[in-house]
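Please complete every field before forwarding. Incomplete forms are returned to the sender.

SECTION A: IDENTIFIERS
Entry label: holo-198
Bound molecule: thymidine-5'-triphosphate
Molecule representation: SMILES string

SECTION B: INPUTS
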Amino acid sequence: MSTSSSPCICLASASPRRRELLAGIKVGVEVRPVDLDETPFDGEAPEAYVTRLACQKASAGHQPDGLPTLGADTAVVRNGEILGKPADAEHAAAMLRSLAGGTHEVMTAVAVCGPAGLLSTCVRSRVTLREIDEAEIVAYWRTGEPADKAGGYAIQGLGAVFVTHLEGSYSAVVGLPLCETADLLSRQGVPLWNRLVS
Ligand SMILES: Cc1cn([C@H]2C[C@H](O)[C@@H](COP(=O)(O)OP(=O)(O)OP(=O)(O)O)O2)c(=O)[nH]c1=O
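SECTION C: PREDICTED COMPLEX
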């Protein structure tokens, strides 16, 4: 599958958000998701965890002599604890309760495997949510939006009504830090501007 007639990278991700973010900066992709065990190692620090997964996704999706391959991973981190995607309604409710009325970090790592080897970076952002009542938690779950989102909310969707403050990269919270991604792609021989204006 590709989002343009001439894909310039391989995207090792099933995330529609990552595909849309890349389309927004005119990067055509060939989608090749990889399935990994995303369980953190015992005592693994959050930044090391998301960076390891992004690198594993990029490496696993990369084919010898193939297009540069991008992998990414996003985690919500509260008081040092990694919150992944909710397993069910109860889990989602517990996550949202723990995030409401406070500030947490969102860490997104991106890795690109290509001619320059495996390059990666991790972007940390801080998000503050207002208080959220129980009726809102139930109603929000019923929309279906939280189910496949780290931390159980989406800043780009209905979840935006809970967000009072963001410090960092909006695109990183959605799933891919675009400024840093463009830099990694350029270092892998996929420059942005001369492709667009030539
Ligand atoms: C916090 C937050 C997360 N998310 C999403 C981004 C990621 O898609 C998802 C975290 O899960 P990931 O495991 O990072 O990604 P994924 O499973 O969707 O896709 P893949 O592993 O194939 O690349 O949560 C939002 O869309 N909005 C938000 O505000």
